[in-house]
């Protein structure tokens, strides 16, 4: 039945080349762990993406219950984690996935560095990768505040104080991040907006650029 | 690829209804993928559909007024119930119209119109009926739907103990 539906659409829109172009491509021998087991290091980029997808999905579901308000944020997180079935799993995916995505991204960066894959003609992809790195750190920093517990509060305070130590513009950065003078209601809504809309939007755009470039240029050769 | 096929045809004339190596691999990979996707997605789906599966909150009986004050003419009573709405807990006000029927039974109607949920009032047009201001639905004193609405007004569960009327949860109308 699915085959018939697929064929019906394909006859009209010729969608086969679309997904072929995405899914069907050569995996060189030197990046295939079936040939050389040490090639597993080439999996870290894909794993980073896999966890990123999980982060986006679990984050979308978490916002069904979360409120970014200083009075109710903690209560809503407590509720979704302890009262909703599988709440601890969905929040756990987002919580532990956040750490894991940083680890995987770091390993991916190391692999790219030590295989020299950042060299010409792939310098732009390295730069985009670095931008993704900082977007991820930003996601981690802004997400950390959202449960509005003590750890969140002080981590944000310390983080913004560090940002405030930048010469000349530091205090303005701090003002923007705080949304005022204290870690409070406006800090929480600002961080929520940045965490849920601005950074994920930027992340998806950067990931698209990252993947288009790697497909265009191909995987770098063996050492 | 073509090399592979030649290899197969040379060594194994396929007669048994064996699964091909490719088919086995795609089933295995597909099954593993489905398992992993399911493991990731099912908790999130269960998390999201919780409103469908959650048990409704149970109602408690609330003291509203003395039985001696209930007359055959419906009167509006307001009472507070403790409401737990996820992470919000509050005292919320509810309204009931209490009266006695011909055989002196106390009953209480919910003024939520069964048409589209507005609030009805007793006798606003002087016809001894419940009238809805939104779409002119009308109900008898027993809550029977006379116009517009498709079903009678709901009742509150009523308990009379020691001369005091207590109201509980909403139940379907038993009188009309």
UniProtKB/TrEMBL annotation, chain A:
Lineage: Bacteria, Bacillati, Bacillota, Bacilli, Bacillales
Keywords, ordered alphabetically: Cell membrane, Electron transport, Heme, Iron, Membrane, Metal-binding, Transmembrane, Transmembrane helix, Transport
Alphabetized NCBIfam families for the sequence: cytb_ExtP (NF040969), PRK03735.1 (NF002990)
Record's bilayer topology term: Multi-pass membrane protein
Major place of residence: membrane
UniProt protein name: Menaquinol:cytochrome c reductase cytochrome b subunit
InterPro entries in alphabetical order: Cyt_b/b6_N (IPR005797), Cytb/b6-like_sf (IPR027387), Di-haem_cyt_TM (IPR016174)
Alphabetical list of Gene3D superfamilies matching this protein: Cytochrome Bc1 Complex, Chain C (1.20.810.10)
One MF term in the entry's GO annotations: oxidoreductase activity
């Amino acid at each position: 039945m699915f085959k018939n539906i697929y064929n019906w659409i394909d006859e009209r829109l010729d969608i086969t080349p679309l997904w072929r172009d995405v899914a069907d491509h050569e995996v060189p021998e030197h990046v295939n762990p079936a040939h050389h087991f040490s090639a597993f290091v080439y999996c870290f980029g894909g794993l980073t993406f896999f966890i990123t997808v999980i982060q986006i999905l679990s984050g979308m579901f978490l916002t069904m219950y979360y409120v970014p308000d200083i009075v109710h944020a903690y209560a809503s997180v407590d509720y979704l984690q302890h009262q909703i079935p599988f709440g601890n799993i969905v929040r756990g995916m987002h919580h532990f996935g956040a750490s894991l995505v940083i680890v995987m991204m770091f390993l991916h960066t190391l692999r790219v560095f030590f295989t020299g894959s950042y060299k010409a003609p792939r310098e732009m992809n390295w730069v985009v990768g670095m931008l993704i790195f900082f977007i991820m750190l930003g996601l981690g920093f802004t997400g950390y505040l959202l449960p509005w517990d003590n750890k969140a509060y002080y981590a944000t305070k310390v983080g913004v104080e560090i940002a405030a130590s930048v010469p000349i513009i530091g205090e303005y950065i701090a003002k923007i991040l705080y949304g005022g003078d204290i870690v409070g209601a406006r800090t929480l809504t600002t961080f929520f907006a940045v965490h849920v809309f601005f950074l994920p939007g930027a992340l998806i755009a950067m990931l698209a650029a990252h993947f288009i470039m790697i497909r265009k240029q191909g995987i770098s050769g063996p050492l | 690829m073509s090399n592979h096929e030649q290899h197969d045809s040379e060594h194994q004339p396929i007669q048994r209804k064996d699964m091909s190596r490719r088919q086995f691999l795609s089933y295995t990979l597909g099954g593993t993928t489905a398992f992993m996707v399911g493991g990731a997605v099912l908790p999130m789906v269960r998390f999201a559909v919780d409103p469908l599966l959650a048990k409704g909150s149970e109602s408690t009986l609330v003291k509203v007024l003395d039985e001696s004050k209930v007359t055959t003419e419906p009167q509006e009573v307001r009472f507070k119930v403790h409401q737990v709405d996820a992470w919000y807990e509050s005292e919320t006000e509810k309204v009931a119209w209490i009266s006695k029927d011909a055989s002196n039974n106390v009953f209480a109607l919910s003024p939520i119109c069964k048409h589209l949920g507005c609030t009805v009032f007793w006798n606003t047009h002087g016809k001894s009926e419940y009238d809805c201001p939104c779409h002119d639905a009308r109900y008898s004193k027993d809550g029977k739907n006379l116009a517009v609405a498709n079903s009678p007004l709901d009742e509150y569960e009523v308990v009379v103990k020691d001369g005091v009327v207590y109201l509980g949860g909403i139940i379907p109308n038993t009188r009309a």
